[in-house]
Task: inverse folding
């Protein structure tokens, strides 16, 4: 009987101490909040974003560029002290993150991706990121954008299906690194994308953020509730 209780206790402790399959971050704004799962397949971007989140770097930065049916962008360090109406988007941290393109990771609605300048290696900004809102596509519009903006690159049928049913921004694929996705709170992205903005796409009312890393217990509960296994729901 004692051995049975000991074994049960060991199994219970093992289960409660199990490490989540992924790391998650919460982004809180005055327009709501969302939870993002960071992909394991993009370790450089994963580790860099998580490091900045844990350090509190993103707290007080703004979503400084929003375009409906496209994306919302944030993470410019200059936005922490920016005056109303000041144009943003050039701030950074003095280093880049190597591109990590993966055939299985694409710009479907809700993904987290890295902004960048026009460097030849397509390396990412150290801090600036965007979350895709996008729009739904048809076979005809996918074929058209593939010819015009994707150098006739083949879009796998599985991804075409997602772009038609869920939406996204296919012309960004293999040009900007995708390294996470919203698993809860997509409503926040929809709300921010719809705010009134200036001609430079900066919201007229500042949308600041707080970014934090989910603790193991909350992350385990989230994975159990949503049935998260690999990189997608």
Result:
């Amino acid at each position: 009987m004692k051995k049975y209780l000991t074994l049960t206790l060991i199994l219970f402790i093992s289960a409660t101490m199990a490490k989540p399959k992924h790391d998650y971050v919460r982004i809180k704004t005055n327009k709501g909040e969302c939870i993002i799962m960071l992909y394991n397949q993009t370790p450089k971007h994963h580790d860099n974003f998580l490091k900045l989140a844990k350090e509190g770097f993103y707290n007080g930065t703004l979503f400084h560029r929003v375009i409906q049916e496209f994306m919302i962008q944030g993470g410019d360090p200059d936005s922490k002290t920016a005056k109303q109406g000041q144009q943003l988007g050039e701030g950074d941290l003095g280093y880049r993150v190597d591109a990590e393109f993966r055939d299985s990771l694409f710009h479907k609605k809700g993904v987290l991706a890295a902004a960048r300048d026009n460097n030849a290696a397509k390396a990412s900004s150290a801090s600036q990121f965007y979350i895709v809102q996008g729009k739904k596509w048809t076979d005809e519009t996918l074929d058209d954008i593939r010819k015009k903006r994707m150098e006739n690159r083949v879009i796998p049928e599985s991804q075409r299906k997602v772009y038609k049913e869920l939406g996204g921004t296919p012309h960004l694929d293999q040009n900007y690194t995708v390294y996470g996705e919203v698993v809860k709170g997509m409503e926040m992205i929809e709300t921010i994308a719809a705010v009134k903005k200036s001609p430079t796409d900066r919201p007229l009312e500042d949308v600041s953020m707080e970014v934090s890393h989910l603790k193991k217990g909350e992350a385990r509960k989230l994975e159990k509730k949503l049935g998260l296994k690999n990189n997608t729901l």
User: Anything to note?
Assistant: The mean pLDDT is 91. The chain has one domain: 23-81+92-225.
